[in-house]
Amino acid sequence: MVFFIGCKNEIKFDSAEWNKNGVDWQITEHREKMVSDLIKSDTLIGLDKISVIEVLGKPEIETEKKLKYLVREKYEWNIDPEYIKYLWVILDENGIATQCYVEKTK
Length: 106
Fold this sequence. Notes:
Layout: E1 2-3, H1 15-18, H2 24-40, H3 49-56, E2 61-62, E3 66-75, E4 81-91, E5 97-105
Antiparallel strand pairs: 1-5, 2-3, 3-4, 4-5
């Protein structure tokens, strides 16, 4: 399933905050609050692959056409995640970002 995000607790995207190190759940919770602004502002659209990586850091998956970033891994009471969200950045044949979207899996 693919969802475009609308988040009540939305905050302005900040590259330094996105790339901050710390406890995993704190990082991903913060990213989840920023991802809507990141997509709506078209921050990444028009950037080349290297520039996207400079803004978002190293992706979990990197191909010539796609970059995949962990946004949020949400756990409740057991070891299985309630959901996982990923940010996908789609690149054209010249390596330019043309689309961003969030994928939510259970």
